[in-house]
Amino acid sequence: MNFSSKLFKLFLLVTSKLYKAIVLLRLKCYKNGWLKTHKPETPVISVGNLTVGGTGKTPVVDFLVKEIQNTGYLLLDREELFLKSLVLI
Question: Is residue 85 within 8 Å of residue 75, measured between CB atoms?
Fold first, then answer.
């Protein structure tokens, strides 16, 4: 193992520890009520996570859009799938 690969491993170790600390701090903030959650008034569908590219999110979103539109809901925002019923209840 050469110097640059050891340095890179050290960099990854430090950044992963930093990321873990930030995530734990964020969770503690939610648990203690310092950060608030928000419940949207309309249904929201979230597809995917932090992974970028190649995980099949786009075909899933295309399928969901078609299925939702076929059930009588109007797509208000293509990116986040905010839905509003076309039928008045």
Answer: no
Q: What is the residue-level pLDDT of the chain in tens, covering all 89 positions?
A: 787 899 999 999 999 999 999 999 999 999 999 999 888 887 777 787 666 677 777 888 888 888 887 887 766 655 544 444 444 33
Q: Residue ranges of the domains in the chain?
A: 1-37, 40-89
Query: How distant, in Å, are the alpha carbons of 11, 12, 14, 15, 89 from that of 4?
Result: 10, 12, 15, 16, 65
DSSP string across 18-34 = HHHHHHHHHHHHHHTTS
